[in-house]
Amino acid sequence: MASTLVYHAGALGDFVTTLPAMTAWRRLHKGERMLFLGKPAFAALALPAFDEVLDAESSLCAPLFRAETSLPDQLVTRLSGVTSALAFARSPSALVERLTSVGVRSILRQDPFPSTPIPIVDYHLSLFPDLAFTAEERVPRVDTSGSAHSSAEAAIVIHPGSGSARKNWPVQRFAELARDLASRGERVSWIVGPAEEGIALPADARAWREPGLRVLAASLARCRLYIGNDSGVTHLAAACGCPTVVLFGGSEPRVWLPLGARVAAVESLSMDGISVGRVLVECRRLIGR
After folding, report:
1. Is the peptide bond before 92 cis (omega within 30 degrees of 0)?
2. What pLDDT score was predicted for residue 110?
3. CB-count burial class (<10 Å; 0-12, 13-18, 19+) for 142
4. Among 71, 93, 197, 234, fewest CB within 10 Å belongs to which?
5. Which run of H or E residues covers position 227?
6. Which pLDDT tens digit goes with each residue over 233-270?
């Protein structure tokens, strides 16, 4: 059976924004096996699931990213039958050269990020100018069928970190927001992972500490509301269908605002310019109280 390969090895949010494009690619290669080359934990979130996953960071796959390096027989065998590839990779790319060397005849490559302000999902879908997409098809969706955190049902969850400190709202304001929501009878939990290193949460904070992505996705799908900075977890929350408030003060919302009917942005020139009151207005609007 003919196979097609998709490559993406970026961060979580970047991966989530490519999901509609990956679905479009599958549409063009209906009936073919679909291999994913990238981070297995991210691949486990995809809908529909990939037929096979190759870990881009494994020693087996490392030669794919080094020019003029012979590929091990095991890897050549794994790639046998792959006739096309979609690669989110910068140019020049040793990966494109290596795939060509093992018989991949058709390779569609795209730089991971747009050079002009355009919604990131639309940027990826521009790879397919002959396909039409409904509003629903443009929204990333992930698998939320895993086991959820015990405190997820109808909770409000806060994620105070991101990949860059300049994109983080002051944690004291998150804490003030959490106190206000709790005073209104809401159950508030915090997501704590690697991005939260060095962030001091309130002493009484109820925290989900380093949940796996499958657990996190299933939990977010059951939450009443999510509040966070421009981060991968925020993109995941929106893709889980969770009502999402995202704060922008250190990045470009025209590019990075997650898609979805229940997504609200609070914007300022800097994160310090976002007041608790403005965020609370959007929270109350999304939860209807």
Report:
1. yes
2. 97
3. buried
4. 197
5. strand 225-229
6. 999 999 999 999 999 998 999 999 999 889 999 999 99
* Residue 7 bridge partners (DSSP): 37, 87
User: What superfamily does domain 156-287 belong to in CATH?
Assistant: Glycogen Phosphorylase B; (3.40.50.2000)
Q: What is the C-alpha to C-alpha distance for residues 223 and 243, in angstroms, rounded to an integer?
A: 8
Residue type, 156: I
Q: Could you tell me the pLDDT band of residue 289, with boundaries at 50, 70 and 90? A: low
Domain residue extents for the chain: 3-138, 156-287
**DSSP codes of every residue in 3-59:** EEEEEE-S-HHHHHHHHHHHHHHHHHTTTSEEEEEE-HHHHTTBSSPPSEEEETTST
**pLDDT tens-digit map of 147-196:** 999 999 999 999 999 999 999 999 999 999 999 999 999 999 999 988 88
Rounded distance, CA 258 to CA 230, Å?
9
Q: How many other CB atoms sit within 10 Å of the CB of residue 149?
A: 19
- Contacts with 127 (C-beta within 8 Å, 6 or more apart), sequence order: 21, 24, 86, 108, 110
**How much is the pTM?**
0.95
Whether the ω angle into residue 48 lies within 30 degrees of 0, i.e. cis, is yes
Two structure tokens written together for 26: 């599958």
Q: DSSP character for 242?
A: -
Residue in the structure block whose two tokens are 């995941």: 236
CA 70 to chain centre: 33
Encode burial over 184-201: b for 16+ CB neighbours within 10 A, e otherwise: eebbbbbbbbebbeeeeb
Beta strand 207-209 with 188-192 is: parallel
Question: Taking the chain, what is the end-to-end CA distance rounded to the nearest angstrom?
Answer: 54
